[in-house]
Amino acid sequence: MRPLRFSVNVTLDGCYDHTVGIADEELHRNAMEYIAGCDALLFGRVTYKMMEDAWRLPVSWPMPDWMSPFAQTIDAAKKYLVSSTVNTAEWNTEMVHGDLATFVAQLKQQPGRGIGVGGVQLAMALTELGLIDEYQIVVHPRIVGRGPTLFAGLSKMVDLKFVGREEFGSGAVAMRYVVR
User: Fold this and answer.
1) What confidence score (pLDDT) does residue 67 get?
2) 58 preceded by a cis bond (ω within 30 of 0)
3) Which of 26, 31, 58, 115 is the most buried (most CB within 10 A)?
4) What stretches in the chain show pLDDT beneath 50?
5) SS3 track for the chain
């Protein structure tokens, strides 16, 4: 059974707004390695659109050379899109239809390295369903005091076991946990 993994960047106060994090070579390498370690990515609509607009090759903005490995990795990745408002998708993407829990459970039963989750609302729903196996929380050394916070409103506590961390020159720390 392949694990369902969620990775997210947050500030020290839990804000997951992508505009307030640190974007550097080390953190992009970490994100690229996370994606490369997955057989597929499962995205919610908002995150899918944001990622497609930014990273579908060729990109429409002046990208530094050190971002290229991340762009190539996410562009090539198999993707699944969970949405009740979008009916079609491109960018190596298959739409998820029917019951989310059933679909994800079947996806996890397939052989492989793992499935990455992109999107905080989707991760919240999958956490509520008890389907996420691993969490990587990349904490950036910033306090923003505003914005959406991770897992706000979760209906139940999830016990985790710490399995590793990676520290970056920026002061960000990637902490990895598995569900107990």
Assistant:
1) 96
2) yes
3) 115
4) none
5) CCCEEEEEEEECCCECCCCCCCCCHHHHHHHHHHHHCCCEEEEEHHHHHHHHHHHCCCCCCCCCHHHHHHHHHHHHCCEEEECCCCCCCCCCEEEECCCHHHHHHHHHHCCCCCEEEECHHHHHHHHHCCCCCEEEEEEECCCCCCCCECCCCCCCCCCEEEEEEEECCCCCEEEEEEEC
